[in-house]
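FAQ
Q: What does a multi-component entry look like?
A: The components come first, one per line:
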Amino acid sequence: MKKIPIVIGLFATITTAAIISSCATTSDMASLKSGAQLWGENCLRCHNAPSPETFSDTEWDVAIMHMRVRANLTEDEAVKIAEFLKTAN
Amino acid sequence: MQNLYRQILLLVLIGFSIHLNAQKDSASQVLSTLDIQTAQLPKATTNDWKPGKSRFLLRGYAHSGLELTDEEFTFVGGSFNPLLIFRQSDRLLFEGELELELEGNELHLGLEYANMSYLLTKSLTFRAGKILIPFGTFIPNLHPAWINKFPTRPLGAGHDGILPGADIGLELRGAAYLGPVKTNYSLYAINGPQLNDGSLEAEEGGLLHYDIVPDNNKNKAVGGRIGFFPMSNSALEIGLSALYGKVGDKDSRYEDVAALLYAVDLSYVRNLPGISSVLDIKAQYSVTDVEEAEFPEPDELGEFHTFDNKSTTWFAQLSLRPAFVENKFIQNLEIAGRYSSLRTPEGAPWEVDQKQWEVGLNYWLDWRTLFKFSYRTISGEAGGHGGGAEEGGDAFFIHWAIGF
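Then the predicted structure of the entire assembly, as tokens:
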């Protein structure tokens, strides 16, 4: 089937990206940005940036973990955004 | 003899009394030990009540509204979608979203998704259960009512559309920086779409249905999405998605029929200091390509027909919000426009060739609550048998949505 090479190519790309990512540092660009900057850049992609006072520190831990999975955040990005929200609330 | 009995009775009483006292002393000792231990504990204050690692959070969204068409002027019930999130530990998360809405006079209760996520590494997460399929951008990211800029969806992205929504399976997903470029990725295996063979309703022969349990064959559909952020401020995201699998029923004439779905999506969000506004552009182009097969002819019993079973749909939307102007009222306004198109196979009983325009004005009460005022116009032909076609013509909507 003609489409199989397309699919194989896509999966090879994704698999390569996943393997590289698991080896590479994830903090290159994230380390240069503040939590506030990452909060603005990542949240605004889909919805308004949430007000820090929306949740308590305890609740932010859960909300950020949820968004780390949902929005594909790296661990460094999630930690910085959480720290910013907890400091600002 | 009587004295002897009295002496024995006296001895028994004395012995019983000694036993009771011993028990009492033992109990007193335990109590006093507990008192000492309690006194040695640090005195608790409010700040000492640290939360455990396992925590629960209720989120979700709700919406309702008013719709005005040529034929009716009616309030619509909208829906209530609670999202239950349970963080079991630093690495394990459970989440499930329900959908409660009125259909006619009856309550429709649906499970949008329910899964567990385990954070494997800093950049890789394993997910299992019913997941929102990461195909394109609208359904996985933009469909919640408080995020969607309009009360309606783009053509093809509705519950009975040609785009996949949710399914049961396994997924690896994550994000990482490859040099200066951020990427996100997802690779998954799911039960997959199912081909309608037209045996029950010939008018729907050739359509794909999603999110059906149980699976109709032993084949699993596999898919993935990879997104690139070529700009250092992550303003631009370009995503490529694909999903492939056999879709026919096991042991049927359609057993080897396969489908390939692919999509390109784009997101561009940036501040425009010159006009003190936030610009948000979203777009997605999707193709559903099912291998050719013969399906029952709707009007001629025993006859079969075939067609090139390829459908395309795309949308582009733009919104502008003057969020940085000084006037409080104006900074909460947002204007939005969206165009979408749907083309399903020519010659199919469910053939659709529609275009939809939507324009809207939104007012944000806070970051997650808004009123939407929008006008929609649809042109083109709808087959009337699924395929994601929109019923009704021009319509005006006033909707309210809240995320919580």
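Q: Is there any commentary attached?
A: Sometimes. For this entry: Residues 4-23 of chain A form the longest helix (20 residues).
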